[in-house]
TrEMBL record:
Annotated InterPro entries: CRAL-TRIO_dom, CRAL-TRIO_dom_sf, CRAL/TRIO_N_dom, CRAL/TRIO_N_dom_sf
Protein name: CRAL-TRIO domain-containing protein
Stored PROSITE patterns: CRAL_TRIO (PS50191)
PANTHER family recorded: CRAL-TRIO DOMAIN-CONTAINING PROTEIN (PTHR46226)
Domain of life: Eukaryota
Pfam families (alphabetical): CRAL_TRIO (PF00650), CRAL_TRIO_N (PF03765)
Residue ranges annotated for the CRAL-TRIO domain, each copy included: 80-240
Region described as Disordered: spans on this chain: 315-334
Amino acid sequence: MGIVSEEEAIDELQKLINQVEGPLKKTFERVHQGYLRENLSRFLKARDWNVSKAHTMLLDCLRWRVDSEIDSILSKPIVPSELYRDVRDSQLIGMSGYTREGLPVFAIGVGLSTFDKASVHYYVQSHIQINEYRDRVLLSSMSKKNGRPITTCVKVLDMTGLKLSALSQIKLVTIISTIDDLNYPEKTNTYYVVNAPYIFSACWKVVKPLLHERTTKKVHVLSGSGKDELLKIMDYTSLPHFCRRGSSGSSHHTQSVDCFSVDHPFHQQLYSYVKHHYETQGQGEPAKQGSFHVGFPEPGADGVQIVKTIESEMHNLENRNGLGKPVDDRTVSP
C-alpha cells in the first residue's frame, strides 16, 4: 500500500532510521537534538516525500558526518585569532537577531564577500561551524525557550557590491551550497534578497526556472534595503545593519553594529564556545594552526546546470556591458 500522508511517510522513515547503530546513530542524535520527526520531515521534503530517496539521503549525510568528524567541529577553533578575523572579513555572514516567531536571522553579504584571505578549507570549516552552532545551540535554546520545536532560520542576502568578478568565487560558493543541500536540507525558512543590483536580476531570471518550486517560493526579492518588509516579521533591533540605512525616527539605533564583524556578539560567542570546548577536551597544548578538512561533495546534475547558466549569463552581461551605466551599478526592483 502506498504512502498516503506526510505523517505515514515520517513513520516509515523513522522505522528505517531506527535500524542504524554505532557512530551513525550517535551523530544522528546530534542532528535531531531530540526533535526526531521534525528533522526526518526535512529530508523527506528535500526528496519530495519519497521515503526511499529520503532514507538514502539521510544515510549519506550521516556517513559524511562520521567520515568528516563533524560532531567534533565545534571544538576545532580557527587559529590564530588573526586568521579567524581574516576569514570573517572576507566571508561575510552573521546573526543579527531573531524573528518574532523565534527564528534566528542570518545575514549574508553575498556581494562583498571576497573569500581571498584564507584557503577553501578554512571557509568551509567556518561555514559548517556556524551551521552546527545554529542547530546545536541556537535552535535548541530557542525551542526550549518557546516550548515548541524551532528547526529553521531565515536568511537576509545583501547583494550590495555584486559584480561580474563574483564569477571567480562561484566554485567555493557551489561547494558550500552543495554541503548545505545534501547535509542541512530545509534549514532555511525564507531567503530575503535586498540591495539587489541589475546583475542579480539578470541572473535570477535565467536561474529561477531551473530551481524546484519549493525553493523559489522561499525567495523574496525586496525593494531597496527591505527594511519595511522585514519589520513585519522582526523588531528593528534584529534588522541586519545593511537594512537600517536611511532610517528615521530611530536615533537611538543609529550606531548599528556590523553583524559581519568578528567583534559582533554572535561571533564572539561562537568563537568562545569553540575555544571552550577545545580546552575542556583536556588538550595540554594550545590549538595549532591547520584547517579542518571536510570531504567536498560533488554537485548534482541540477547544480552543475545552474552554475553553467550563471556563468553563461554573466559572460553575456559582460559582453553587452558597453552602454550607459556599468551593469554592476544598475538597481533592480522586485
